[in-house]
């Protein structure tokens, strides 16, 4: 991933501590009774600065939590208790360094945003920005979004799910690692409330086609457009990555609504 957290090229781990978040990550030996599942991310090394560590120590216990797997019987998170209010909840999968997360949460203070990421340095950058900008409608979960959706989110509860620039895994032999597959889309559809929205964006034409097929095939979802009456904004900020790395590359935005 580049400095702004946008493009994680699978296999391009950076120096530092191993950035692992769940027991199912590649690189760890599979338990004989619980074979490792294929994940959409790869363990990588990252470090955070002393300043980021200071913010992390202060804020993570309040604003962050670790993803839970099936071994933990706690059940779905109580978002009203966590945010201290009752508001529509949007889950962002793979927030990177949280550039879009922060801007969209600031633009929609009446929504509560849960940012999920396996990459600790990205979460540390987002935490520092939350601290700096005094934003109070973002919470963070570290770990695999599939675990989060499966074990921490109640059915029919989310107003939106955002997936911006998911790793495209461009090689054919890696396509099985793409996050947005029929199973994940079905899980997302299950966790959305009726009228809730999935918003995906990608600059990879092949993955865009794949996501479109998968979303259109999910019976609980119907395609909508940015001009439709939606319960959340679909205006993404143009990030540094988009301005530089994607100059001249088309971004495909895909939107579905869960049947009302
Ligand atoms: C290409 S980056 C895009 C980051 C960000 N959405 C953006 O637009 O800048 C994809 C991110 O998704 C994260 N990711 C991939 N699979 C994930 C999963 N199953 N759960 C949580 N995060 C995941 C990666 O760690 C990476 O930071």
What's the arrangement of secondary structure elements?
Elements: E1 17-19, E2 44-46, H1 50-63, E3 64-66, H2 79-83, E4 89-93, H3 99-107, E5 112-117, H4 120-133, E6 138-142, H5 145-152, E7 158-164, H6 182-191, E8 192-202, H7 205-217, E9 221-223, H8 240-244, E10 252-258
Parallel strand pairs: 3-6, 4-5, 4-7, 5-6, 7-8
Antiparallel strand pairs: 1-2, 8-10, 9-10
Mind explaining what this structure looks like?
By secondary structure, the chain is an alpha/beta fold. The protein has one domain: 3-Layer(aba) Sandwich (Rossmann fold), CATH 3.40.50. 30% of the residues lie in helices and 20% in strands. It is built from eight helices and ten strands. The strands form two sheets. Strands 3-6-5-4-7-8-10-9 form an eight-stranded mixed sheet, with helices on both faces. Strands 1-2 form a two-stranded antiparallel ribbon. Mean pLDDT is 87; it is low at 1-18 and 20-35. Bound molecules: S-adenosylmethionine. S-adenosylmethionine (SAM) is lined by residues 1, 5-8, 39-41, 93-96, 99-100, 116-119, 122, 144-146, 164-167, 179, 241.
């Amino acid at each position: 991933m580049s400095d702004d957290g946008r493009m994680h090229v699978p296999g391009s781990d950076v120096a530092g501590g191993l950035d692992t978040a769940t027991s199912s990550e590649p690189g760890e030996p599979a338990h004989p009774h619980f074979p490792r599942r294929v994940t959409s991310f790869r363990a990588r090394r990252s470090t955070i600065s002393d300043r980021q560590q200071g913010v992390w120590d202060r804020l993570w216990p309040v604003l962050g939590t670790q993803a839970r797997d099936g071994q933990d019987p706690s059940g779905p998170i109580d978002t009203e208790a966590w945010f201290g209010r009752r508001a529509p909840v949007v889950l962002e999968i793979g927030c990177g360094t949280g550039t879009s997360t922060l801007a969209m949460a600031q633009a929609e203070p009446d929504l509560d945003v849960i940012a999920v990421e396996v990459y600790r340095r990205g979460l540390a950058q987002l935490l520092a920005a939350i601290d700096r900008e005094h934003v109070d409608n973002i919470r963070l979960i570290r770990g695999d979004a599939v675990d989060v959706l499966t074990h921490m989110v109640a059915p029919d509860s989310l107003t939106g799910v955002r997936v911006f620039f998911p790793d495209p895994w461009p090689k054919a032999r890696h396509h099985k690692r793409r996050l947005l597959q029929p199973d994940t889309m079905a899980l997302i559809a299950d966790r959305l409330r009726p009228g809730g929205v999935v918003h995906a964006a990608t600059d990879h034409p092949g993955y865009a086609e794949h996501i479109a097929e998968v979303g259109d095939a999910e019976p609980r979802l119907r395609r909508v457009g940015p001009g439709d009456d939606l319960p959340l904004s679909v205006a993404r900020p143009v990030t540094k990555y988009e301005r530089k790395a994607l100059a001249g590359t088309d971004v495909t935005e895909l939107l579905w609504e869960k049947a009302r």
